[in-house]
Every structure is written in C-alpha cells, then in structure tokens.
Amino acid sequence: xxxxxxxxxxxxxxxxxxxxxxxxxxxxxxxxxxxxxxxxxxxxxxxxxxxxxxxxxxxxxxxxxxxxxxxxxxxxxxxxxxxxxxxxxxxxxxxxxxxxxxxxxxxxxxxxxxxxxxxxxxxxxxxxxxxxxxxxxxxxxxxxxxxxxxxxxxxxxxxxxxxxxxxxxxxxxxxxxxxxxxxxxxxxxxxxxxxxxxxxxxxxxxxxxxxxxxxxxxxxxxxxxxxxxxxxxxxxxxxxxxxxxxxxxxxxxxxxxxxxxxxxxxxxxxxxxxxxxxxxxxxxxxxxxxxxxxxxxxxxxxxxxxxxxxxxxxxxxxxxxxxxxxxxxxxxxxxxxxxxxxxxxxxxxxxxxxxxxxxxxxxxxxxxxxxxxxxxxxxxxxxxxxxxxxxxxxxxxxxxxxxxxxxxxxxxxxxxxxxxxxxxxxxxxxxxxxxxxxxxxxxxxxxxxxxxxxxxxx
Length: 458
What we know:
Blueprint: E1 6-12, H1 18-33, E2 37-44, E3 56-62, H2 73-83, H3 88-96, H4 101-114, H5 121-134, E4 138-141, H6 147-156, E5 162-167, H7 170-179, H8 183-195, E6 201-203, H9 206-216, E7 223-225, H10 241-247, E8 260-265, H11 274-286, E9 291-296, H12 304-315, E10 320-322, H13 328-337, E11 340-342, H14 353-360, E12 365-368, H15 373-377, E13 378-379, E14 382-383, E15 385-388, H16 393-405, H17 407-422, H18 426-436
Parallel strand pairs: 1-2, 1-4, 2-3, 4-5, 5-6, 6-7, 8-9, 8-11, 9-10, 11-12, 12-15
Antiparallel strand pairs: 13-14
Helix pairs in contact: 1-18, 4-7, 5-6, 6-8, 7-8, 10-13, 11-16, 14-17
C-alpha cells in the first residue's frame, strides 16, 4: 500500500441515508485534518455544503440513473446534471410528492448490482477512472450493499488499491433486494465482497453485527465493531433559548403550566416510531402530566407519514410543535433546552447519532430496549438515559414520566451523559479506523485542527 494514503468515500448523499452520510463525512473530515488526502464520491444525490473546504468532491452518479430497471447512461449523464441546477429544496419537494419514488429508485439500484454477473459495468468503469485519476489507495464504501462496485474496481485497477466496507443500514437494501427477487444473489455477492477486502468489514455496533450474521448469513469473523463518531461540542455553555424560539415560537422555557420540553429529532418515517411517542404523550396528558412536545426532522420517502402525525395529533387532541428539517444551530439548541430526547424507533436501530449528539449536550435520552442504540446510552453500570419496552407506548409513557418528575434521577443521568458521549468522538472513530487499516494515528498536520473551515449547514 502507498506510503501516502488517499481516501475516497463512496456515499449516498441524502434521503434515508443522511445519517450514514454524516458519519462518513465526520470520518472524512477527521482524516483530512490529520493531513491525509480525501475525496468524496457522491451517489444518487450530492450534499456539497456538508463537506469542509479543501476536500475534493465528484459525482459518481445521479439518482436519475436508476429511474428504470436498467441503469440509464443518458438519464445519468444528461438529465441528472441538468436537474442539479435546480435548487435542492425544489428537487426534494418533487420527489417527496411522488409516492414510492425513492423506494423504486433504490430497488433498481439493487437490481443493477445484483442481477447480472457484473454489477453495473459502466459505473464500475467510471469509478475506476476516478480512483486512478485521484490516486486513491483506500476506497471507503459507505454501505456493504454497494461494495460489489469496489470489488470490481479492485480487480481492474492497475495500481495498489483496496477497499473497506462499512455496514450501517444495509438491512434496508436487503429488503429491496428481496422485493426484486434477488436476496440469494445479494447474500452471495455481499459475502464475496466482504471476504475479498484487505480488512475485516466494519459493523457500527455489536447488536448490528449480530443482525448481519443472523439475517444476512455473513461470517462474524470477517467483521470488527467500530462505533460511529460525532463532533463533540467545543464547550459546555448552552446555546441561548432565543435560537430555539426562531423555529418554534410557541415553545416556553421551563414553563410550569405547559411542562418541560420533550423532543424527537430524526427522519419522519414510519420506522422511527413517532406514533408511539404521540400515544405516550396522550397517556400522560390523561394523567395530568404536561409536556411540550417538539417533533422535527427531514423525510426521505414522501410526506405520507407526516400526514399520519398530523392526523394522530388531531384525533388525540394533542398540541405539538411540529417542523421539518431544522438547522444545526436549532438542533443543538433543542438538545440543550429539552428535558430529554426521545428516540422511539421500531426498527432495531444500528447505532443512533441523535442519541450520542444529545448526550454530548448534557441531555438524557429515552430509547427502545433493543438495538445498537442501547449500547450508546450505557457503559457498564453507567447510563445517560432510560430504555422502554420496544413497541410499548404504555411503557414509553411510564419511563418518560420518570424523566419528567424525578429530578434526582434526571440529574444523575444528565451527569453521566457527556462522558458517555465522549466515547463516540470523531477522534476515537478516526483512531480506530486508522488502527484497523494498520496506518499511523499521527500525521504532520495532526495538531492543526483549527486550520480548516467549519462544516457548513445545508
């Protein structure tokens, strides 16, 4: 392997996988700040404002490539670039209002990678061209499910190259492969890609590794668990409440009549379990326990679940503070001023970046009792939050009431949060990845973290 590694991250730019993109870019930024050359290769959608200055970016393919069962070079090379001139918000609105659009696109992506003996040959050639042009030595694949591309490039590349596969949310790709009747091909080719990498693949939690073994039949000996990383706050001083009021003008600070602020931040999709939180809020309202419920975050698969939230809120006669995606500044203000962050997912989450971020701001969390997310909130006997019985809105209400009423319990959990979150710092993740790749942890620019511009909010 070359003495001066160059990393290229192949990542899907937004939608259902934005959390995965944030993880990839957090790692990319940490490596760049240490003096490594880093390139981002975007698939389907690009989100350039999330990338710090100095890191090169290329479009590997646009989402238009997979509008039909067979990849379309014309739609990718001609229509995709033309559509990219329109504002991203406009493109997102169009997609959100076409039922099943995103699911169909991702299912077609799986067809292109797992139907034929060679996965999407023209895209492989394009990726190979970029790899050779940029002098890439380490190809970082954001998902195991797109790793067949890396395996083919490795076979064809004339210079030393290897790839690292990370699994984070691949069960969703497996579902798309199954719907296309390709699950057997998917498992076989996935196993081949994992075994032909120069390093064990990465699973982002112990529980998620067990899922990969049980559900996809992958060999646990071909994996290592390395947790995701987040950028820790530079100081413990909280953002002013006035920032929160800009997005949610009806929210009150420490309001005795309306209750404390309880927040959900994340994608507004059915698997995130927001309906469970609404049922729990209603149960608490019946008991006379008041809270100010905030629900915010993007959508990826259409606005149907947002309509469900609105309908349930109306039927349950609840008053909530409801928004779409919010800025990073408003998000951090929510973390800082909420009594707790509730993450009621029904999907056995692999990790939970929101949970780690909330704890880094000193805020306790409430999460289901299964999935990798439970590994985030607890270390030994130390906890930064509570768990509730998965899928059980009544138990969610009981545990939420404890966090709202028991000040001693809340103070004890809050005191643990920052130390627990520090285990998932971006620096720890980068150190673990470099060690995994047998590369030096220290670079000549490693002390100059202030030399690069900050991440810009999209």
